[in-house]
Amino acid sequence: MTMHKSRGISLAAGLSYAQGLLPLTMGLVIWQAIGPERSPYFPRPSSWYDSLVALFNSGKLLPALNATAISFSLGILLACAIGFVLGILIGRAPLLRDALGPLLEFCRGLPPPVLVPVAVLLFGYAESLKLLIIVWVSVWPILLNTTQAVHLLDNLLLDVARTFHFSMATTLRKIVVPAAIPAFLLGVRVAIPLAIIMTLLIEMLTSLQGIGSLIVTSQRQFRSAEVYGLLALVGVFGFLVNAIFTMVERQVLKRWPPAIQV
Amino acid sequence: MEGRVGGELEPIFECRDLDYSINLPTGPRRILDGITLDVYRGEFLTIVGGSGTGKTSLLRLLGGLTRTTGGSICFRAKAVDGPPDGVVVVFQDYSHALLQWRTVIDNVALGLEGRVVATTLRERVTKALEMVGLQHCASDYPWQLSGGMQQRVQIARALALQPEVLMMDEPFGALDAMTKAILQDELLRVHRDTGTSFVFITHDIDEAVYLGDRVIVLGGSPGRIYKSISIKLPRPRDQITSRQAAAFLAYRAEIHAAVRESTRSDGY
Amino acid sequence: MAIKLNIPGTLTILALAALWELVVRSGAVTFEYLPPPSVILSSWRTLIASGEMAIQTLHTLRSILIGWTVATAIGVGIGLLLGLSSFARNWSLASFDVLRPLPAIAFLPLALLLFNFSLTTELVLIIYASVWPVLINTMGGVTSVASRLYDVSRTLRLTRSQTLLKIIIPAAAPAIVTGCRLSMGLSLIMAIIAEMIANPHGLGYAVISELQAMQPGRMFAYVLFIGLLSLALNAGLVWTSRHFLSGHRWAKNDHA
Questions:
Q1: Residue A109 and residue C189 in contact, taking contact as beta carbons nearer than 8 Å
Q2: CB half-sphere exposure, C54, CA atoms < 13 A
Q3: Which residues are within 8 A (CB) of B231 and not within 5 positions of it... i.e. 6 or more apart?
Q4: Cβ separation C9–A200 shorter than 8 A
């Protein structure tokens, strides 16, 4: 096994991967070709694009996209910070872990959609509601993964810290934190789709500004081309978020042996 | 005594000018070169060589798991195209080669299921287990057994098929010395009792001499047959007396020298 | 799930419940619509007694079961195909990778458009979302079958179908079962989402309608019940999968 890492994907590999796009592209092409001129249920892909352009021109698209993107990003980042810090603390304290364990598991297992009505009841229809829910939903996988990693920290590494007479802070900084990072990133990876789903869900249920409420409005007005167009937009959004995360992950985990890299 | 059949030695494998190359990203690499070799009925043939000499490739070619890129292999006078009927391969990594989710007895039965009637299956499986001394572990799972026992399960699985030739790829390489010795003797017992031919790959020269009727030294890169030595040690062999015999030491020295020369001649 | 009682954990939960009760009753913190646990419990009793909780639960459970079963069948089928055939993989994987990150919830308005407020909408959503974990895990399980096992199937001269049934599928089983477990969790989530927005039946709908009726006690009762249901479903699956994979105890990969 060679140790050198290729700089990104070679052109040949990229092309051979892209051939897998054939079914999807063919599907869209066929739809475009045989789709009826105006169909209430299966509008042609070209009409999706047209409707998106119209939305954009009407000045509704960008603010909605903005609102969704910002809520999502803010929520995830906050969840990362809270989840990581708490994860390390709880992981290092066995008593806390035992005491809070069942509670945390219950919170993790509580289906996220159920939180929306609860939060609405308690806090009303406010923008902060959105952030609160996104953070709540995202924090659990991050927190629990980090806790688990810290808990399972190889005792050998801790012995190393003791032989070197590391202080608690140094141990945390040099051993515990780096060891928890792969699991933390895995937790973030799990949290991302959850956060996207919840952002959209809140927007759909409460009509707070965002892509979700835009889609629901379009659906209620039976503007099917808009619905499909926005759907595709959400897909692109999800793809971009994943791509960015993968790049960040690869950068951060460059120093880890491949086995740990996800 | 070499060769189990009295009188003429009957070849069951005939290799003529065997070549084997693989395609690496850096270009084609020849692994074996001009291998001409017969395997005789009933013999215990061991093949030794250092790493990279193509021992495993040769075994896979004989076992029909890989196709030659030049020359010919015949088993019972028919060209080998896929695993021949009557030849079974036993692998070094027993934990990957066994079905860990099946009990020992179900593992041993794997090759016979759907091929023979239930009563025959049960008979052959029981007999195979007895041959390797595992009749008491029939309902255990492989992951509950030690390495040596797992390897025995793999051997029993092969024996249940009553093969003409058993090919073994460094089967004891992953085991400790004592387990190795016990299994070597068990293998010799099976050889004596069933008359099956063995083709046994190893990098352990002592093992090769102890077990074999004939030792082939594979050397160089690409691998060539460097030497073929008849082992005229009396059978049954014994871990203590056979290994102390003057003849044993002489064969051992001869093979060590051959391996050393074959490495040097290729400029390592 | 540990059989032994987690004492600190249980105490914490009881303490929190007591604190909650105290804080609300004493008026120290006022949320206009936050009921204390005692009220929630009594609402629970009422709902169970009237049979309403049972009706809603049955609807949700039925949707989940149907959706999950269909999703599993589709996911295992396609997953096996993709896992076994590198040709199929080469010519379709990228398409799947594009569709996968699309959150199933984004399809909800589309499903509403096509199927209106109905059980079909709910089922379509559940199935679409739940197929993915099963598909991905099945494909992954099949492609990571140890190559040595293929050598074994060849040297023992097993037929193609024997190899598939006796080696490939059992070897991939732990991964497939994990995929099924993940997808069950998704089925529950999607069922609730669908019931909140697109199909006025079931537990999800019950929560929303209690919200709109300003009945916090009953709403929280449903919320907590949903949480417990989720735990129970997961525990049930863990137990079934352990039982199913009894020979696989060597594959210590299950994350309960």
A1: no
A2: 6
A3: B2, B209, B212, B213, B214, B215, B251
A4: no
Regarding pTM above 0.80, the answer is: yes
- Alpha-carbon distance of B243 to B249, in angstroms, equals 7
Q: Does the CB of A18 have a partner CB in chain C at under 8 Å?
A: yes
Buried b (16+ CB within 10 A) or exposed e, C135-165: bbbbbbbbeebeebbebbbbbbbbeeebbee
Largest CA distance in chain B: 58
**Helix or strand holding residue C132 (H, E):** helix C119-143
Alpha-carbon distance A250 to A262, whole Å?
Answer: 9
- Residue among B171, B96, B84, B94 nearest C167 (CA): B96
Residues of B numbered 157-186 whose beta carbons fall under 8 angstroms of chain C's beta carbons: which are they? 157, 161
Q: Considering only alpha carbons, which residue of chain C is nearest residue A95?
A: C8
Any idea what DSSP says for residue A42?
S
Of the candidates B16, B129, B119, the residue with the CA atom closest to the CA atom of residue B73: B16
Q: Is the pLDDT of residue C251 over 60?
A: no
Flag whether residue C114 sits within 8 Å of chain A, measured between CB atoms: yes
* ipTM over the 0.90 cut-off: no
Tens-digit pLDDT profile for residues B141-157 = 999 999 999 999 999 99
Mean pLDDT value of segment C191-202: 93
> What would the two tokens of residue B13 be?
């494998």
Neighbours of chain B (3+ CB pairs under 8 A): C
Q: What is the pLDDT of residues B11-34, one digit of tens each?
A: 999 999 999 999 888 889 999 999
Return residues 80-99 of B near C (CB < 8 Å).
82-83, 85, 87-89, 91, 93, 96-97, 99
Q: Which residues in chain A are contacts of C90 at CB distance < 8 A?
A: 16, 19-20
Answer yes or no: do C247 and B141 touch at CB < 8 A.
yes
What average pLDDT does range A144-154 have in this prediction? 85
Of A17, A204, A234, the CB nearest to C102: A234
Q: Which residues contact A117 (CB under 8 A, 6 or more apart)?
A: A205, C196, C207, C208, C210, C211, C219, C223
A111 vs A197: CA distance, rounded Å? 12
Q: How far is CA A77 from CA A147, A192, B9, in A?
A: 18, 10, 78
Residue of chain C whose Cα is closest to the Cα of A206: C197
- Tell me: the pLDDT tens digits for C52-80? 999 999 999 999 999 999 999 999 999 99
Chain C residues with CB under 8 Å of A216 CB are 109
Put simply, the answer to whether C248 touches B101 (Cβ < 8 Å) is yes
